[in-house]
Amino acid sequence: xxxxxxxxxxxxxGHEIRVFRPDRDDLPPPESEPHYRxxxxxxxxxxxxxxxxxxxxxxxxxxxxxxxxxxxLVHVVTEGPLGASAVSAARSMGIPVTSxxxxxxHAYTRNYGFGVLNRLVLWWLRxxxxxxxxxxxxxxxxxxxxxxxxxxxxxxxxxxxDTVCFSPEKRSQELRSEWGVxxxxxxxxxxGRMAPEKNxxxxxxxxxxxxxxxxxxxxxxxxxGPLREQLIAQHPECIFAGFYSREEIGRYYxxxxxxxxxxxxxxxxxxxxxAMASGLAVTxxxxxxxxxFIRHGENGLLAACNDPVALQRESVRxxxxxxxRVQLGREARSGFEEQSWxxxxxxxxxxxxxxxxxxxxx
Length: 362
Known about the structure:
Blueprint: H1 2-12, E1 18-22, E2 37-41, E3 43-46, E4 49-55, H2 59-68, E5 74-76, H3 81-92, E6 97-100, H4 105-111, H5 118-130, E7 135-137, H6 140-148, E8 154-156, H7 173-178, E9 187-191, H8 200-213, E10 218-222, H9 228-234, E11 239-242, H10 246-255, E12 258-261, H11 270-277, E13 281-285, H12 288-293, E14 301-303, H13 308-320, H14 322-332, H15 341-356
Parallel strand pairs: 1-2, 5-6, 6-7, 7-8, 9-10, 9-12, 10-11, 12-13, 13-14
Antiparallel strand pairs: 3-4
Helix pairs in contact: 1-15, 2-3, 4-5, 8-13
């Protein structure tokens, strides 16, 4: 989603953008996205995770395409075989190549029972990114961590927020009624992939502690993923809303009251800033977007990363103290106008132009 927004906005600024990505059934028709062109490449489904595709190496095809229409710069946003072959192809042709770090794949190995592969995955990630001129990451904190792990030439590419899509003005009493919410009831929301790395065990433990204080509390989960059917079976009292477009999900955020962010494997955590821009009272670990945007006790509540009990305690405060919840939700929205996608992408555009050494980026 992040790079879809970036590609679209760069296209709107007059750059010719071509996105090489693994083939999948739900690729939109070319005319549906006028600001960039998508080129489907061979790939395969990732077992147990149908939402994602793994792209095969495609160095020969990429070189052929780039000889016919040479780009001024190649930017790689995935470290799989397709992305790695793009780095090699670009370097062999003398085309400037940069990359961005979007996913902590080395941390995910523990969540999927492959912790023994952590060092191997980290080696691979470092190898791919260090083959590029510059690697962008979404927070200064992550840039520092990656430098300590041996990643070179790190730069900041923060995440923007669509303050029109994610706004308290999207709040819908009709939607709350569909959830069975009565006047005075509170709603906890979670948005995202239903996958092991999202820390669902802790999330539901926190929800149970919050519901012990307020038996009328509702928990709405929007999203899809490999754990969805299992979670539905285990928690029939919750509302599983499925997957929604970004336009529709804005209504979901604004129609809730509380957002608990329990994940510790995010490179950033877009969902947290979307919840804050929507006017929700939020709790989070002091990590990634939480560390960057939450001022504890002013516009949200923070807990130390190694203290899940503290995150539970802070979350329970939001159902114990309505005045605190309302105050935090009101203050959460402020300041996000400066974090608009227009400002974020403008800075990124200048960085790419500097690496391309040209006035036009293709």
